Amino acid sequence: MLPVIVPWLQLNSLGLTISIHPNTEDPRADHLYYALWVNRSEPVNGYVMKKPGPGEPRVEQIFVNTRPAVKIERA
Questions:
Q1: What pTM did the predictor assign?
Q2: For residue range 9-59, what is the model confidence (pLDDT) as tens digits?
Q3: Which residue(s) pair with 20 in the sheet?
Q4: Among 6, 1, 69, 5, residue whose Cα is nearest residue 37
Q5: What per-residue confidence (pLDDT) applies to 71?
Q6: Which residues contact 59 (CB under 8 A, 6 or more apart)?
Q7: Rounded distance, CA 66 to CA 72, Å?
């Protein structure tokens, strides 16, 4: 779906800046290194986002979508 959604966002963003990134156990890397920006990029304060250390709880509860629920129609 990404090849359909990203161009749509580019054409219909109305000047908004949009960050698209994965949700892993390292939110800092997700926002600083793996982000895809629509329109212009914005500065991200990575100092407030830290990867959890050994034995520490995750920074946020993450539900990774590894099984798409939408059927892809083939032409």
A1: 0.61
A2: 999 999 889 999 887 878 888 889 999 999 988 998 888 877 777 877 665
A3: 36
A4: 6
A5: 73
A6: 25, 27, 49, 50, 51, 52
A7: 15
- Beta-bridge partner residues of 19: 37
- Where b means 16+ CB within 10 Å and e means fewer, 17-41 reads eeeebeeeebbbbbbeeebeebeee
CA 24, distance to chain mean position in Å, is 9
**What is d(CA 65, CA 22) in angstroms, rounded to the nearest whole number?**
10
pLDDT tops 60 at residue 62: no
> Which residue type occupies 3?
P
